[in-house]
Amino acid sequence: MKKILIIIPAYNEEENIGLLLNGMSVMGIKEFMDVLVIDDGSLDHTAQIAEDSGFKVIRLIFNMGYGAALQTAYKYAAANDYEYLLQIDADGQHDLSNIKTVCERLGCFGSEKGGHPDIVIGSRFLEGSKSFHISAMKKCAISCFRWIIRRVTGQSLTDPTSGLQGLNRRAFSFYSRYNNFDLKYPDLNMIVQMLLLGFKIEEVPAVMCERTAGESMHSSWLKAGKYMILMLLGTWNAYVRCKTGSRT
């Protein structure tokens, strides 16, 4: 059995996911790692395209949210004894070259010396990274999140909203348990929680490409405003729970 699982949460990504999965097939990724698509109640042919491409798919019966799709995969990984998990977006923004970079820092290949982090985040802002244009609204949010992380945890991260992440078994097993993971918007709040609980998080340079089709979950000012409010409330909740020890 392969020890590395790549998870791809997807919602209405029929225009993008076929190209992503075809790229994985061409690279021969399935020879070394298992790949799981979590279809979050898509209303289009996302799940069918993934299945027709020969990839394993878990279909959620209705749209439960990005975090719920991720936790479904964490539960699957924990139940099936994987040692490492990589998560990438279905929209094609995460170049497949990032897989090797994240795996090496996470220690998946076993030949790298030194201690390894529990979570590796692919960052658009480190030397050696490549990215597309980011809106002023998103830059403002990222700057705010960076400040909160430094203020609350004393540590610095450059790209706290990146969905490109690698997790070891300790991290994804923790996320898989009840009440340990935000089922809607798991970003800043989860980073603060994990740092306060003693999990080690590091970043690596990442190659990001612009979405060519479909719509982002933060595609309007209204959605972005809602996201910011919920994220700040969720981060405060995570901070209080960690500091008071009120966890289940």
N-to-C terminal Cα separation, in Å? Answer: 32 Å
Give, in spatial order, the strands making up the sheet with the most strands.
3-2-1-4-6-5-7
Number of helices: 8
Instruction: List segments where confidence is low: pLDDT < 50 over at least 5 consecutive residues.
Output: none
Helix fraction by DSSP (H/I, runs of at least 4): 40-55%
Q: State the CATH class.
A: Alpha Beta
Sheet with most strands:
7 strands, mixed
Per the CATH scheme, the topology name is Spore Coat Polysaccharide Biosynthesis Protein SpsA, Chain A
Overall, the morphology is globular
Class from helix and strand fractions: alpha/beta
Rounded radius of gyration (Å): 17 Å
Domain Glycosyltransferase 2-like: 6-172
InterPro entries: Glyco_trans_2-like, Glycosyltransferase_2, Nucleotide-diphossugar_trans
Protein name: Glycosyltransferase, group 2 family protein
Pfam family, one: Glycos_transf_2
In short:
The chain has a single domain (4-244), classed as Spore Coat Polysaccharide Biosynthesis Protein SpsA, Chain A. It has 8 helices and 7 strands, in the order βαβαβαβαβαβααβα. It has helices spanning 17-27, 46-52, 66-79, 98-106, 136-153, 169-176, 188-196, 221-244, and strands at 4-10, 34-39, 56-59, 84-87, 119-123, 165-168, 201-205.
Describe the model:
- This protein is of the alpha/beta class and 248 residues long.
- The longest helix is centred in the last third of the chain and has 24 residues, at 221-244.
- A seven-stranded mixed β-sheet has the order 3-2-1-4-6-5-7, sandwiched between helices.
- The mean pLDDT is 91.
- Helix 3 crosses helix 6 (169-176), helix 5 (136-153) runs parallel beside helix 7 and helix 7 (188-196) packs parallel to helix 8 (221-244).
- It has one domain (4-244): Spore Coat Polysaccharide Biosynthesis Protein SpsA, Chain A (Alpha-Beta Complex).
- The two termini are 32 Å apart.
- The chain contains eight helices and seven strands; from the N terminus they run βαβαβαβαβαβααβα.
- Strand 2, helix 2 (46-52) and strand 3 (56-59) form a beta-alpha-beta unit.
- One of its GO terms (molecular function) is glycosyltransferase activity.
- This is Glycosyltransferase, group 2 family protein.
- It is an enzyme of class 2 (transferase).
